[in-house]
Amino acid sequence: MLVDFLNGLTEDLNIGIQIALFVVGLALGVFCLVKFCDWFVDGAGVIAAKLKVSPLIIGLTIVAMGTSLPELAVSISDSISAIGGGNSNVAIGNVVGSNICNILLVLGFSVVFTPISVKKSVNRREIPILLGVTAIAVLFVCLFGLHGAVSVDDLAITRWEGAILVVGIVLYIVYLVLVAKRHPEQVESESEIKNMPLWKAVIFVIVGALGIFLGGQLVVFGAKGLALQGAAALKLDRDMSEALVGLTIVAVGTSLPELVTSVIAARKGQNELALGNVVGSNIFNILFVLGISAVVNPLTTGTQVLVDAFVMLGVTVLLMIFGMRGKLNRAHGAIFLGCYVVYLVYLILRTILGWTF
Hints:
α2 runs antiparallel to α8 and α4 packs antiparallel against α5 (about 90-115). This protein has helices spanning about 1-10, 15-50, 55-65, 70-80, 90-115, 120-145, 160-180, 200-235, 240-255, 255-265, 270-295, 305-325, 330-355, and strands at about 115, 155, 300, 325-330. The radius of gyration is 20 Å and the shape is globular. The protein has one domain (about 1-355): NCX, central ion-binding region (A middle domain of Talin 1, Up-down Bundle). The strands form 2 sheets. The chain has a two-stranded antiparallel sheet. The model is unreliable at about 185-190 (pLDDT under 50). It is mainly α.
């Protein structure tokens, strides 16, 4: 594993150099995730188009999953690194934190720029589906996780729970395709597939995949390294520190594709794209990212994740309540951003004071 190799190289260095390397690794990892994610999606889209796959299918699968690839790379890397022992705080914190960030920060900024109209179909289908899969994830953590935990102080998402989530993403994609075929007017007629030769598209996919893997490894190396050094220097709980980094720095970093896409879409007046990007990404994060990561290795974490899981559920309910009014206005955006600031303050205090709630 690259993470173990990098950790071995930094063991004998002084603390100052170690921290600098962790920061560089984290920053470089986030850059690789964002940059190579674009390459992978572009290449995969071209290959699918050359194989005569419908632009509709490309948009609902490759492009939709594309913004979740950074979260997937980080979570799987952390899941694998935990096989030898330890908790997957970054993996779970990354997914939970990204979903919270997508609604409160990404959607909040988008709505502050331009109010977003919410279609009745979104209120009837997409948001309830998001609420449902979020509730399932919370249920898995609360009720069934103890069976896969390493101690009574830990919770986990087990392999069979992960398998259920993976089946869920397959069913969701099938559902998307069926709905899109019944309502073609709700789907963009023009795909944004770049015109490039097949050989170049193949290179984009290969290099993109390798870059995403490298980025995920670097983010885990940097995030866990910073958490470990912070915990040692401030005499904080290691699991709490890892959870803080995963829920904040890593979550925001891996949410950059959604943030950029949604803000640009909102500024261009493409309001539905901004909202659909957030809702779809959150569904994929839970079913696709959390599911596959748990199948690779059961995801264990401290009991503090219960609060974060319920915050994720709470902000999803808040989105549904605001959406029922048919429009997300600037006041809603300000509330989202305010809630995110309050949540960040809570995370910092929880880590410093050692709260388990």
